[in-house]
């Protein structure tokens, strides 16, 4: 091969090393024999491989050759290693690394680093602002005065609600968060939500979409819903603001409807509807005439404040002014008084909203007459210091007053009268609780009537009263007591006996303990009560007997039973006192019937279960009446047991045989015998023989068999002459 050919081949190989992607791995043997060729070829091949690695971003290829060109590639490789290190630092937000060498790459990298640092700082600031904005959003959301809800766009799942939502709809947060509208049934018409979604998809938002929503209890409210899409963690959500326009909607709908429908509502509304503008009444409905007493023609263009009670006028003007300015007022409704045309005062509750009337600001107002409600509230307030039955002051008021009077010496001497109604329990037992209430009311009226204007009369217990007499000494207090006793004596009452025990004590100066004075008055009252109580109870029983004997059949029956009881007791060899007591017991055995209605006693047909239960109580009532008086306490037991039966089937206790007192067993036979032989509205009288046969058949069942034998053998013949006559 000539030298010229070798040179051409060498040049071609070197060009291939530079230009071609694929090269032959080894040159020919002839070329390798040329001096210096192999070293040159290997150096160029190593540089080619190094550059190839660098072009792929790999800087770890080892260059073994020396010389200017290999050193340049090594320098490039080193620079690339430093650049990779700097880029890694920048990726970790470390912008402190700078390339100190000159050149376009260094300048470009340093400029890029500077820009990246600026961008990073801007992003950090944006993130900080976003966090702060999120906190502000959450604060606005939770404190918004409007009902606010966040739901997932896809299915309406409720993500969050504010407190106003809970107050408006009556739910706790835990009852709605995490649930879809369908689960809680908040939309009355489920298509309303779909309408909202369609509008949002078209516009990106919706504003003042009307929908009827339901509260927790099912109550429907009319609302306006405004909504907008927001992103939470990359997921589309809706933030909804819901405004309850139920009241406003009713009013504005009424005003916006046709004249006919508007007039029908306006003219027939049970609430007064008015428009106030520039301090005057512009329009009002007919009910205004009833509420105010003025004709509508008199009201129109009259100052609205003209009707308001002077004590309420400034407050109402101030509230109305704030409403017109759009400022918040303390309450959703205002309560005030008006003065009617006839000068009577009525309480009014008014609800108002700001409207536009004939292109100017005005208020639409609903006025309700709440006088009855206010009177009821006053009644409740009255009852908090007054006794409901008598109308006198109660214990609560008394305790406040006694402290007030006790701490001020200008009220000394302070007399205290303790009063106790005699025989209240007996009256209740004998004539019923209505009669007992009548007794208390009668006594209360006398106490109030006979005391002076500034005296304090209070009912502090069931039958206990106290009278506080400021600036009253013992002599004047006794004079009041005497007036009360005189009035009670002269009081005409049916059936019930009026009687009061009173005791007096006086607080003369600051050194007297008022509680000790009260105790002394109470002790004096009890001393008086001991001396008068028995006499009063005897009078009450006399009244009870008089009432019973107004029924002639019952009167005759009681006398007959008394006679028969006496006859049986005589044949049983009882002593005179026992015979006397059983005759009294026979006379009073049905005293408990005074509490039973005459219609039940004289009922011609069979008694109902409830009526029979009432009748069966008369032995117990008779016992309680008689047991209150010492002289009748023994016979009260005989009265209690006179319907017990020998076999234990009687009432009220179900006693049997000798468990029943002897006297009660006697009364049982006498009562049954006489009851059979007298005519009553519901039955004819049996003959003596029929009655005796009935008694005989029930010996050992209802009646004591021994007493039955004595009655038939020794008593019937004697009393038959009385019946024959």
From TrEMBL:
Q: Which CDD domains match?
A: GGDEF, HDc, PAS
The answer to whether keyword Heme applies is no
Q: Which UniProt keywords apply?
A: Coiled coil, Hydrolase
Q: What class of enzyme is it?
A: hydrolase
The answer, when asked if Hydrolase is one of the entry's keywords, is yes
Where the record annotates domain PAC, the positions are 332-382
Official protein name in the record: Cyclic di-GMP phosphodiesterase response regulator RpfG
* Species, as recorded: Clostridium saccharobutylicum
Q: Its gene?
A: rpfG_1
């Amino acid at each position: 091969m000539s030298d010229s050919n070798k040179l051409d081949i060498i040049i071609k190989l070197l060009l291939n090393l530079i230009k071609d992607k694929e090269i032959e791995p080894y040159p020919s043997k002839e070329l390798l024999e040329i001096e210096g060729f192999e070293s040159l070829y290997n150096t160029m091949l190593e540089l080619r491989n190094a550059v190839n690695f660098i072009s792929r971003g790999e800087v770890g290829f080892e260059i073994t050759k020396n010389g200017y060109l290999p050193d340049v590639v090594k320098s490039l490789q080193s620079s690339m290693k430093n650049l990779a290190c700097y880029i890694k630092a920048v990726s970790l937000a470390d912008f402190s690394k700078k390339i100190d060498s000159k050149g376009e790459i260094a300048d470009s990298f340093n400029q890029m680093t500077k820009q990246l640092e600026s961008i990073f700082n801007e992003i950090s600031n944006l993130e900080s602002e976003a966090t702060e904005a999120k906190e502000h959003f959450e604060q606005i959301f939770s404190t918004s005065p409007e009902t606010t809800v966040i739901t997932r766009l896809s299915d309406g799942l409720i993500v969050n609600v504010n407190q106003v939502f809970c107050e408006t709809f009556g739910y706790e947060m835990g009852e709605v968060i995490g649930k879809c509208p369908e689960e809680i049934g908040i939309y009355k018409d489920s298509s309303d939500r779909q309408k909202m979604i369609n509008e949002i998809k078209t516009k990106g938002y919706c504003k003042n979409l009307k929908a009827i929503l339901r509260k927790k209890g099912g109550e429907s409210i009319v609302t306006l819903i405004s909504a907008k899409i927001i992103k939470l963690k990359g997921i589309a959500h809706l933030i909804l603001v819901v405004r309850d326009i139920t009241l406003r909607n009713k009013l504005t709908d009424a005003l916006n409807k046709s004249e006919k429908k508007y007039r029908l509502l306006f003219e027939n509304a049970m609430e007064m509807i008015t428009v106030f503008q520039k301090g005057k009444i512009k329009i009002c409905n007919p009910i205004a005439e009833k509420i105010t007493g003025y004709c509508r023609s008199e009201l129109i263009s009259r100052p609205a404040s003209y009707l308001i009670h002077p004590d309420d006028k400034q407050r109402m003007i101030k509230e109305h002014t704030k409403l017109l300015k759009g400022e918040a007022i303390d309450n959703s409704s205002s309560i005030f008084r008006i003065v009617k045309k006839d000068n009577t005062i009525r309480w009014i509750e008014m609800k108002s909203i700001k409207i536009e009337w004939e292109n100017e600001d005005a208020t639409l107002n609903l006025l309700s007459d709440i006088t009855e409600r206010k009177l009821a509230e006053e009644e409740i307030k009255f009852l908090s210091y007054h006794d409901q039955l008598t109308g006198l002051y109660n214990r609560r008021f008394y305790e406040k007053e006694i402290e007030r009077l006790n701490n001020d010496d200008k009220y000394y001497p302070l007399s205290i009268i303790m009063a106790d109604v005699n025989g209240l329990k007996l009256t209740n037992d004998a004539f019923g609780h209505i009669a007992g209430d009548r007794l208390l009311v009668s006594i209360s009226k006398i106490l109030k009537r006979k005391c002076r204007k500034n005296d304090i009369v209070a009912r502090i217990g069931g039958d206990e009263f106290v009278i506080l007499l400021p600036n009253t000494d013992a002599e004047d207090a006794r004079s009041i007591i005497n007036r009360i006793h005189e009035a009670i004596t002269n009081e005409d009452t049916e059936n019930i006996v009026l009687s009061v025990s009173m005791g007096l004590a006086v607080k003369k100066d600051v050194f007297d303990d008022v509680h000790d004075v009260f105790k002394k008055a109470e002790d004096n009252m009890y001393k008086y009560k001991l001396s008068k109580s028995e006499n009063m109870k005897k009078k009450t029983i006399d009244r009870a007997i008089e009432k019973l004997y107004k029924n002639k059949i019952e009167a005759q029956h009681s006398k007959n039973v008394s006679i028969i009881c006496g006859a049986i007791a005589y044949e049983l060899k009882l002593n005179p006192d026992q015979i006397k007591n059983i005759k009294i017991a026979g006379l009073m055995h049905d005293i408990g019937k005074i509490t039973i209605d005459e219609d039940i006693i004289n009922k011609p047909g069979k008694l109902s279960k409830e009526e029979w239960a009432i009748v069966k109580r008369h032995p117990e009532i008779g016992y309680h009446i008689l047991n209150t008086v010492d002289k009748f306490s023994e016979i009260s037991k005989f009265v209690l047991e006179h319907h017990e039966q020998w076999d234990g089937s009687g009432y009220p206790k179900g006693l049997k045989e000798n468990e029943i007192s002897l006297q009660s067993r006697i009364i049982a036979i006498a009562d049954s015998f006489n009851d059979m032989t007298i005519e009553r509205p519901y039955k004819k009288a049996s003959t003596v023989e029929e009655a005796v046969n009935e008694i005989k058949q029930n010996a050992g069942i209802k009646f004591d068999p021994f007493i039955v034998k004595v009655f038939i053998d020794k008593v019937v013949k004697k009393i038959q002459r009385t019946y024959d006559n």
